[in-house]
């Protein structure tokens, strides 16, 4: 199986480096992506929005033969959901890592402070304690050293969807910050933040208790959870 790994904000393909070995060892072809504007600190980010990131992943799907599994971490969840909308017939499963599908008209996070075309990684004090669980001082230093400003448009642009077949693509949600019991409760109560997830016909929920960046704090466990989802 071809597995496409889409990183969350401020991260490039290398952020998956500790997750991919178990997937490769299991015989899968792994494609961790660096999305437009995330190539380097001085990469141009003007004019890069959510659609440009979705289109970059769609291009990867189109360059491959057969079905793919999409994995999106954090803001990458909105991106892979846009790809599911564009190519539902090509996606065997969508895996959301501490993230979920953003519905039509939704945004990833338009409250993040921007500097021109850039959204820099905020200070740690701006994050909730749950975000930072298991993220040691060493891991925080490594993260900040590798962090690249996110293109402002990706965070602020509205999602545009229109293909109802997106609801038929099987989904795995790997829940880290919040237990799956809480997430399921929000879905069942009709919470608007998970309305898109509620409309998907085949959803499984997997607990991986840690902070918001399991690829750093629990990479082996995350790899195993992705592998189990792919094997389904």
TrEMBL record:
Sequence ranges assigned to domain AB hydrolase-1 in this UniProt record: 3-222
Gene3D superfamilies: alpha/beta hydrolase (3.40.50.1820)
Taxonomy, superkingdom: Bacteria
GO MF term set: catalytic activity
Secretion signal span: none
PANTHER family xrefs: AB HYDROLASE-1 DOMAIN-CONTAINING PROTEIN-RELATED, ESTERASE_LIPASE_THIOESTERASE DOMAIN-CONTAINING PROTEIN
Name of this chain's protein: Esterase
Species the sequence originates in: Cryobacterium roopkundense
